[in-house]
Write a structure and sequence with these properties.
Chain A is α+β, with helices and mostly antiparallel strands and about 230 residues long. Helices cover about 55% and strands about 15% of the residues of chain A. In chain A, helix 7 packs across helix 8. In chain B, helix 5 crosses helix 6 and helix 5 crosses helix 7. The chains are: A alpha+beta (about 230), B mainly alpha (about 200). Chains A and B meet through helix 2 of A and helix 5 of B.
């Protein structure tokens, strides 16, 4: 009796240790899908290393159009571009050093600082700052113009993930900040914010402007590149 | 390689054209055939994804279980589409900007999943690659033909054909013409086969 019972117990234990075909199939399916997904992710990560596009700031047609609109040179965009009306106010190394000293993290940075190099605004002291901030919808790059005495002249959009979303706000923002010597985050946010889903992108937009205001103050105060 | 099977697969892009016969991938075909450059760009990108996905899926056909074949195919196709997008953004940014959202939409193009399911998953790698090439070139030719015609008609003053509605109408006309010519070809082939069998008797 006890031998029979022992045999029966051993048989039950053996059956419990062997998986059912359904469970085996499910595990196999999950394993194959996981391997395919992980392989695809690794391949894309590797490709991203070699195919990543680094944005290099240039004084191109689009940039000149924005700068010319912020502080008109008296010439049209083509003439301003051809005759070098605008130039970099800070070298890329100086900008990188400023970013390293003043910004924590990688969600925002100054990309370039421009100045009027020819025409009627030459040596006028206006500084144009191209700054970038990352939000929920992607990167926002703005150019903010600041006069020598710290007066804001306005902003222009270099790139934005959702153009229609913000175009109606640009005029309102410029109407508010033009000729102001200081703006605060609290003043700018209501102008940019248009809905709950945009909250993080609103912050990025405002961050880009505030960053521009900060560096422009240091460039103007330091009389060119001396201070930075 | 079986000669008949090779011939049927190689001519698949013409006799079973994905746009004019199978009527697949119509949305990107109409949307991005407003000019020949965009049409060629999208057609070429789709063809590359199709060839690569066919090869990969065919080589993994004995490994991927039947129950999860569709999710696995989608992952592979989406990864290839992302690779193409990264490549275009790096080397041809103007085309990437022009094609916009239609590059990532290649991943949900019915031609690619359709060929993966109907052919690549059931045939060897060589045939799958040939099918991808044939169908890819067939799609490229169809979208370029439509793009070229729409651009020419637009330049000639018939700007209605550059609009989506006009593109739809022109595609319909091309579809009718293509199938008419295909039917003539097939009838001629049938007659030739019949006369050949009579001679043999």
């Amino acid at each position: 009796m006890s031998r029979k019972r022992n045999t029966a117990i051993k048989k039950d234990l053996k059956n419990a240790a062997v998986m059912s075909p359904t469970l085996k199939n499910a595990l196999k399916n999950a394993a194959v899908l996981t391997i395919v997904a992980v392989s695809a992710a690794l391949l894309l990560a590797l490709a991203n290393v070699f195919l990543k596009v680094e944005y290099v700031p240039t004084i191109d047609k689009k940039t000149v159009a924005i700068l010319n609109a912020l502080e008109p040179t008296g010439a049209d965009d083509e003439t301003a571009l051809a005759e070098g009306y605008f130039d970099f106010a800070l070298s890329p190394d100086a900008v990188a050093a400023w970013n390293k000293k003043n910004i924590v993290g990688s969600r925002q940075k100054v990309i370039a600082v421009f100045k009027a190099a020819a025409g009627e605004n030459k040596d006028g002291g206006t500084v144009f700052v191209e700054a970038e901030a990352t939000g929920y919808n992607g990167k926002i790059a703005l150019i903010t113009a600041v006069n020598a005495d710290g007066t804001l002249l306005g902003i222009g959009v270099r790139s934005i993930p959702s153009a229609e979303f913000y175009s109606k706000n640009i005029e309102a923002i410029n109407g508010h900040i033009r000729s102001k010597k200081a703006v605060t985050t609290a003043e700018l946010k209501p102008l940019v914010y248009t809905g709950a889903s945009a909250r993080v992108t609103t912050t990025a937009f405002v961050d880009a402007i505030m960053l521009s205001v900060k560096i422009s103050g240091e460039v103007s105060a330091s009389d060119g590149q001396k201070g930075i | 390689m079986d000669k008949k099977a090779f011939k049927d697969t190689a001519l698949g892009g013409l006799l079973n054209n994905p746009v004019f016969v199978l009527v697949l991938g119509i949305c990107p075909t109409i949307a991005k055939s407003t000019n020949i450059v965009d049409a060629f760009g999208l057609g070429a990108a789709t063809a590359v994804v199709l060839i690569c996905s066919n090869v990969l899926i065919s080589s993994l056909r004995k490994v991927i279980p039947d129950q999860v074949r569709l999710p696995a195919y989608i992952i592979i196709i989406a990864a290839l589409t992302t690779l193409i997008r990264l490549f275009l953004r790096r080397f041809v940014p103007v085309l990437d900007e022009s094609l916009g959202a239609f590059i990532p939409l290649i991943a949900v193009n019915c031609i690619i999943l359709g060929r993966a399911e109907a052919f690549a998953s059931k045939n060897k790698v060589g045939y799958a690659a040939l099918d991808g090439l044939s169908m890819g070139l067939g799609f490229l030719a169809a979208i370029c033909l439509l793009g070229g015609l729409r651009q020419l008609l637009g330049l000639a003053g018939l700007s209605v054909f550059v609009t989506p509605a006009g593109g739809f109408i022109l595609l319909g006309l091309l579809l009718g013409l293509f199938n008419f010519l295909l039917r003539l070809y097939r009838n001629a082939q049938k007659k030739r086969a019949q006369s050949h069998s009579k001679e043999v008797r």
